[in-house]
Write a structure and sequence with these properties.
By secondary structure, the protein is an alpha+beta fold. The chain has a single domain, classed as Alpha-Beta Plaits (2-Layer Sandwich). Strands 1-3-2 form a 3-stranded antiparallel sheet, with helices on one face. This is Putative signal transducing protein.
Length: 75
């Protein structure tokens, strides 16, 4: 069984939107990480993933603050 992560997915979308949200969150002191299965698969030598399907994660402790920021930023 995999260990539980301290991160939670808060958004999935294009690279441009994810980079924008990372900047907005960082400006408010919230760190984030991304996951791009397509890019990872290509780097490993096999296909996989969906184009423009980048996942953005924040720490679970930051979820309550991050979600309203993301919603407001995308509206």
């Amino acid at each position: 069984m995999f260990p539980k992560s301290e991160y939670e997915r808060v958004y999935t979308g294009s690279l441009i939107n994810v980079q924008f949200l990372q900047t907005v969150l960082q400006d408010r002191g919230i760190n984030s990480i991304t996951r791009d299965d397509m890019k990872s698969g290509m780097m490993a030598g096999f296909g996989g993933g969906i184009p423009d399907h980048i996942q953005l994660f924040v720490k679970k402790a930051d979820m309550e603050e991050a979600l309203p920021i993301i919603e407001k930023s995308l509206s």
